[in-house]
Specification:
binds zinc ion; 144 residues; five-stranded mixed sheet; globular; 3 helices; Beta-carbonic Anhydrase, Chain A; alpha/beta
Length: 144
Amino acid sequence: MEKIFPFVSPKEHYTADVTVVWCFDARFRPLFNAYLQSRGFAENRIDEIKCAGGARALAVGSPDRDPILEQVKKSVLLHNPQTVILMDHIDCGYTGGSKAFEGREHEIDDHRRTLQESIKTVREAIPGVTIEAIFADFEGVHLL
Ligand SMILES: [Zn+2]
């Protein structure tokens, strides 16, 4: 075995502050970091589940629903967060981006519907955990 990058990582197991389901769209990576830091979550206590579509992957009809839900369940089982944050964002390529909708309001209405479905999916699978659903656009984070 050849070490190609020396770095010391903590060996201790941890309890997560939060589990986050977030789209891997890198345009929102700085927002991901800034928002979670603003919430006071410790950087090394965040279970990140990044996948195409973020919370949208947990909505009804998503082909990724079961595997992503399994990841959320494993995070909660292993690291016992009190909170799960489900994120959805504007212009998400998972559903064809903003151009797939007839205007911003239509797009936001669709996100509102799928976030509710995603909340229901997680609530039914993992009772007792607090679920927050947020919507991100190019100006910040919103509740829908
Ligand atoms: Zn996306």
